[in-house]
Design goal:
Elements (H helix, E strand, L loop, with lengths): L11 H13 L14 H25 L8 H10 L11 E9 L7 E4 L4 E4 L8 E3 L4 E4 L4 E11 L1 E8 L9 E3 L5 E11 L7 E6 L12 E6 L5 E5 L13 E8 L11 E3 L3 E2 L5 E2 L1 E11 L7 H14 L6 H11 L3 E8 L10 E8 L7 H12 L8 E5 L2 E13 L8 H19 L6 E3 H11 L4 E14 L7 E6 L15 E2 L2 E4 L5 E9 L6 E8 L9 E6 L5 E7 L2 E9 L7 E6 L7 E6 L3 E9 L5 E12 L4 E7 L11 E6 L4 E3 L4 E4 L8 E7 L2
Parallel strand pairs: 10-11, 19-20, 21-39, 21-40
Antiparallel strand pairs: 1-6, 1-17, 2-5, 3-4, 3-14, 4-6, 7-13, 8-12, 9-10, 9-13, 11-12, 15-16, 18-19, 21-23, 22-38, 23-37, 24-36, 25-37, 26-27, 27-34, 28-33, 29-32, 30-31, 34-35, 35-36
């Protein structure tokens, strides 16, 4: 009896082989040559037909599920079931102050109509059109009309009118013909008929729970061709529109992210005020550059966001709710971090903190932050919970790599090999860092360096430094708290110490000095403080505080309040302590317990400069403190007169104590590719 035809292999060659094997076992075809005869063509047709059907059914199965679908229209269709509409192209928005000058001081009003346009500076050789979305009114003050914090959006205003014919369009669906629509700017109004010019503005549905049979709303969806469509209710969920109604739509067609960073604008036309005067003299002052422009949502992102929004049920309650909803409504971000106030340091209850890393810039302007809170977060968040957007805190990683290699097993010169290793490090940065919740693992980076050329590179040693940057307030004594968000290495010699870039201050004599910050190693091994764990009871006299350990000279005195030890003051820090215990005796009381905090985990900062003889001179011996456990640096009352750095930033650099660094809350670890000191590579040929 012949074997059955095998059906588990579905590629073309295997299908044809299985067909030949099956036919060879039939008595009717025992003497046929299936490779050299016309039957070979028939087998090809059968194999192709089977292969096509298998491929088709596999694709049908894939497209039936959101997780496995590949075609955009399939993914969009699945997302619609979850009440998710993919976000459209997003128009960049800039904030300006716009001032128009009149020839008189008579009080009047000036209206900038919706669609009033401005022309931007050139970006990559092209200028972009920005418009006002809403009619905006200013009242004259003296002879000036001032529009403060005016939001202008990149794009061209487009208006389309559709006549509704119930017989040809029973589902009341209207397709918007433009591809680069910013649907957040879409406005829809409906006239009852062409003869009835009264129009009603319809609102977009964001939550059907609030929609009744008489609600004047419209729905938005993406069709199979990638175009957006609007449709109306059925008198059960939303009010339907009558036969013969006239539907008017207006929206922006935008160039999306191409217009980001536009920051200089000119008005393109005059405006007539309420007094009939044509205003032609304008001054445009940029407040914040154009930002938030983004391309329409990708297929992969739709898969993630649709499921996430369905889980949140269009409400902001959990951390994931905030992340998915804000990402959908404000797509021009690379990374987002959200945490509750109870997780903050220090805790702030009843508050949600949000940090956003934009795609184009390092930070989001204050005006844009407020717009995100007011327009995106507040309408969906819990009533009693406040939200605050804070800037990302960038901690820059500097890598010193000492790479040992066989010089005779590579065709690269030293310069080429150094550049190759630099590119490996930057690739690691792109793949693993530059976002919230990132983790830097030194061993993984070393492994990637070694894998670049396994035959030539023997191994590498890395020293990792952390750097924070801040812009000082010039001419004003200011205290700065700088959090590295990682344990720091305590330096003992010049090469290991915390360092900073130079800046100018006045010394005690009023002389301008160019100084830098450094660790003060004179208190390397003393007793920093004594913490009272239990104050005890019954103390009528000052007890004796005995400090035992491997150091010398430390002394302390207790402060008694109401029979209890309120505090213990260190009168001499001593030296040489790597461990210490505190014993409290006498004073007629009992039960008091205290512990010593050693200088090894805390340090002092000072400002220094070098005189003409290259001798170090101290300007301020108590410039600040450093907590090596938490990575917190506090600089006290620093009065910077001027800063020679071209970017006006002071950089503080210190070696990391850990080889694994985990970013928390709003911290972002990054290797700055534009910083020549970020990656230093030394090559050691193996002899």
């Amino acid at each position: 009896m012949a074997d059955r035809l095998r059906i588990t292999e579905l590629d073309f060659d295997t299908i044809k082989t299985n067909l030949k094997s099956f036919l060879n076992q039939q008595n009717t075809f025992t003497d046929y040559d299936f490779d050299g005869s016309g039957l070979s063509i028939l087998l090809d047709i059968l194999a192709y037909n089977t292969h096509y059907n298998a491929y088709y059914l596999n694709m049908v199965a894939n497209e039936a599920f959101l997780d496995t679908a590949l075609l955009r229209d399939s993914v969009v269709s699945h997302a619609k079931v979850l009440n998710y509409v993919p976000y459209s192209t997003q128009a960049p928005v800039a904030i300006i102050n716009f001032e128009g000058t009149s020839s008189s001081e008579t009080i009047g009003r000036l209206t900038l109509p919706a669609g009033y346009s401005f022309l931007s500076n050139q970006i990559d050789g092209k200028s972009y059109n920005f418009v006002v979305l809403e009619d905006t009114v200013a009242t004259k003050a003296n002879s000036t009309y001032l529009f403060e914090n005016l939001a202008i959006y990149e794009g061209q205003f487009v208006t389309y009118t559709f006549g509704h014919n119930a017989s040809s369009n029973p589902k009341q669906i209207f397709t918007l013909p433009d591809n680069n629509i910013d649907t957040t700017t879409l406005k829809v109004s409906v006239q009852q008929s062409s003869s009835n010019t009264t129009s009603v503005v319809y609102d977009k549905v964001t939550d059907v729970i609030d929609v009744t049979s008489t609600s004047e709303v419209y729905f938005l969806q993406e069709d199979r061709n990638g175009q957006y469509q609007i449709y109306f209710g059925n008198d059960a969920v939303g009010k339907s529109i009558p036969d013969g109604a006239v539907v008017t739509t207006s929206y922006l067609v935008s160039n999306a992210s191409a217009a980001n960073k536009a920051n200089n604008f000119i008005a393109t036309s005059s405006v007539t005020d309420s007094l009939g005067e044509s205003i032609t003299s304008f001054t445009v002052t940029p407040i914040s550059a154009a930002a938030a422009g983004a391309e329409r949502e990708t297929v992969d992102n739709i898969k993630y966001s649709a499921a996430a929004q369905y889980t949140s049920q269009n409400r902001l309650v959990t951390q994931n709710d905030y992340e998915s909803y804000i990402t959908n409504r404000y797509p021009n971000i690379d990374s987002i971090s959200v945490w509750g106030g109870e997780e903050n340091n220090p805790p702030v209850y009843g508050k949600v903190f949000i940090s956003l890393k934009p795609s184009e810039n390092y930070f989001i302007s204050e005006t844009e932050k407020q717009r995100i809170i007011d327009d995106i977060v507040k309408p969906k968040s819990i009533l009693t919970i406040d939200s605050e957007i804070i800037d990302p805190a960038f901690t820059y990683i500097l890598v010193e790599a000492n790479v040992e290699y066989y010089s005779d097993k590579t065709n690269l010169s030293e310069v080429q090999l150094k550049n190759a290793i630099r590119n490996v490090i930057l690739s690691y940065n792109s793949a693993n860092l530059n976002k919230f919740d990132s983790v830097f693992i030194q061993s993984k980076l070393q492994e990637q360096i070694g894998n670049y050329d396994t035959s030539a590179i023997i191994g590498s040693e890395l020293v990792v430094f952390l750097q924070k940057r801040f812009e000082p307030q010039l001419g004003t004594p200011t205290t700065y708290t700088i959090d590295f968000d990682a344990p720091l290495y305590r330096g003992g010699v010049v090469a290991d110490k915390l360092t900073s870039t130079q800046f100018n201050v006045f010394d005690s004599t009023g002389t301008l000095r160019t100084v830098e910050l450094e660790e003060d190693d004179t208190t390397f091994s003393g007793i920093r403080e004594i913490q009272v764990i239990n104050p005890g009871v019954g103390y009528t006299e000052q007890p004796t505080i005995t400090i035992s350990g491997d150091g010398l000279g430390a002394r302390a005195e207790a402060v008694i309040v109401n029979g209890k030890i309120e505090s213990i003051n260190v009168t001499n820090r001593g030296t040489g302590y790597t461990k210490a215990t505190i014993t409290i005796s006498g004073g007629n009381g009992y039960g008091a317990v205290a512990v010593a905090v050693l200088d090894t985990r805390y340090g002092n900062l000072r400002t220094v400069y070098y005189n003409s003889l290259a001798e170090k001179q101290v300007v301020n011996s108590n410039a600040g403190t450093i907590d090596y456990n938490t990575g917190t640096v506090i600089i006290n009352d620093l009065n910077v007169i001027s800063n020679p750095a071209t970017d006006s930033l002071i950089r503080i650099t210190v070696e990391s104590e850990k080889s694994i660094l985990t970013a928390t809350r709003n911290t972002i670890f990054s290797i700055d590719s534009n910083d020549s000191s970020a990656i230093v590579t030394e090559l050691t040929p193996f002899e």
